[in-house]
């Protein structure tokens, strides 16, 4: 059995929020440069997986202007810049 200690400390909500933002930003910076060398456009499925949302959410985001898509032929794509700008807005 391992003995582990739990430490509790008080922290104001603003500092906690900044701490969470810093952690998320660091993780996104690890992901974004690795994928920025890939392709210019992502399919709906790739975009949904990357943003961790459903295809229905992407459809609604397109309709309300949150994330614009690009149609090439009969296929729907999302530009790399649009996807990354959405990620940066969230973080």
From TrEMBL:
Superkingdom of origin:
Bacteria
Helix-turn-helix domain: from which residue to which, for each copy? 41-83
> Cross-referenced Pfam families, in alphabetical order?
HTH_17
Spell out the SUPFAM superfamilies in the cross-references.
Putative DNA-binding domain (SSF46955)
Cross-referenced InterPro entries? DNA-bd_dom_put_sf (IPR009061), HTH_17 (IPR041657)
Recorded protein name is Helix-turn-helix domain-containing protein
Q: Which organism is it from?
A: Chryseobacterium kwangjuense
């Amino acid at each position: 059995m391992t003995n582990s200690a739990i430490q509790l400390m008080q922290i104001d909500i603003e500092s906690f929020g900044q701490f969470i933002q810093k952690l998320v930003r660091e993780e996104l910076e690890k992901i974004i440069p690795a994928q920025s060398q890939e392709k210019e456009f992502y399919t709906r499925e790739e975009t949904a997986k990357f943003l961790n949302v459903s295809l229905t959410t992407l459809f609604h985001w397109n309709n309300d202007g949150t994330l614009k898509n690009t149609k090439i032929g009969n296929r729907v794509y999302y530009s790399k810049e649009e996807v990354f700008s959405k990620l940066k807005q969230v973080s």
